[in-house]
Amino acid sequence: MESKGAAQWSSIIVPSVQEMVQEKIITTVPPRYVRSDQDKTEVTDGTGLITEIPIIDMKRLCSSTAMDSDVEKLDFACKEWGFFQLVNHGIDSSFLEKTKSEIQGFFNLPMEEKKKFWQLPNEMEGFGQAFVVSEDQKLDWADLFFHTVQPVELRRPHLFPKLPLPFRDRLERYSAEVQSVAKTLIAKMARALEIKPEEMLKLFDDVDSIQSMRMNYYPPCPQPDKVIGLTPHSDAVGLTILLQVNEVEGLQIKKDGKWVPVIPLPNAFIVNIGDVLEIITNGTYRSIEHRGVVNSEKERLSIATFHNPGMYKEVGPAKSLVHRQKVAKFKRMTMKEYMDGLFSRELDGKAYLDAFRI
Ligand SMILES: O=C(O)CCC(=O)C(=O)O
Ligand SMILES: [Fe+2]
Predict the structure, then answer these.
(1) By the 8 A CB rule, do 252 and 274 touch?
(2) Looking at the 3D structure of the chain, how many domains does it have?
(3) Fe2OG dioxygenase domain: from which residue to which, for each copy (predicted)?
């Protein structure tokens, strides 16, 4: 039988950057991490102020007196930015603070503890890096922990079920809370675009929708301008809900050809449209390239939760939308076909999605 979930994909096993930084004082970045190809200039607008992504208030969006203007605001954010900050999302702030400190604690575990969760040959989940497909490929200045959380039967037995308590229970609740936020947002997007609700629900149903998590750990770097924490990419998923775990900033998004830093509001999630929603919305909502940069002073941590249709669901422009827009801009494919191609190549901005345009 065909293997399911992320278990079938792999990334070449590479050294832990956290371990490298802890073990010896590094003054010069090893050549494999030097990214002279990356443009690090950060951009402010003409007034010297930093351009900021839109802010969406979830309480207003969901209240019984929700104004069309709130849905329009969401629609504008998804069309023009592909990114927004979500405030008043209803998840308890002390719960989020505890989640953050337990994620920090997980990365602070002794290396021998973390090695139990390291990527296995020919697998992609666990600690390591993703999208490493050749021995001479340049690497990111970061470690990650990637795992599939939902549906439960796709969890790798040596990962989620073996995470230490109370961290495991905390992530279980976090998974449920964030899933519910994602479902609400996707339903509101369908409403804004007049996509039939059942069309969206069929794709993102409760039975086989896939939720995965990627915890990112970016150690400080003696030459931060020479490296990249996370290679520019768009997320190859439906919707991403990102939580910055400590107070250190480093996320940048590409807006009108320029890199713009994102400065998270306290307690807010950063939400972004992934390639799969770009496909479903026939290009009306856009996945936006983003990247992680690092600094010389302090480590940075984040957790991205990805929401996807089930592996064997066929994904393509929503039929009710194509009917009105008259033309389909993307080919149809199963999620598995999309992911199989994705994980066999290096991250390269939005190049992969472009291959599916008609
Ligand atoms: O660390 C961040 O802020 C961004 C993480 C991210 O883009 C990802 O995990 O896909
Ligand atoms: Fe991302």
Answers:
(1) no
(2) 1
(3) 209-309
Phi, then psi, of 198 in degrees rounded to 5: -65, -25
- Residue 124 maps to a domain: yes
Give the position, in ligand 1's atom list, of the atom nearest the Cα of 300.
1
Distance CA 234, CA 354 (A): 11
Residue from 216, 163, 295, 217 nearest 18 by CA = 217
Is 216 a pocket residue for ligand 1 (Cβ < 6 Å)?
A: yes
Q: What is the mean pLDDT of residues 118-137?
A: 83
Task: Give yes or no for residue 292 CB within 6 A of ligand 1.
Answer: yes
Token pair, residue 26, equals: 């590094």
ipTM surpasses 0.90: yes
Structural domain boundaries enclosing 175: 42-355
pLDDT tens digits, one per residue of 19-52:
888 888 888 999 999 998 777 666 655 555 667 8
Residue 71 domain-assigned (yes or no): yes
Residue 321 lies in a domain: yes
The two three-digit tokens of residue 121, written as one number? 């040959």
Smallest-distance ligand from the CA of 234 = 2
Q: Is the dihedral of CA 158, 177, 213, 269 positive or negative?
A: negative
In the chain, what's the furthest Cα-to-Cα distance? Answer: 60
pTM: 0.93
The backbone torsions φ and ψ at residue 102, rounded to the nearest 5 degrees and listed phi first, read -75, -30
pLDDT in tens, 228-270: 999 999 999 999 999 999 999 999 999 988 899 999 999 999 9
CATH of the domain at 338: 2.60.120.330
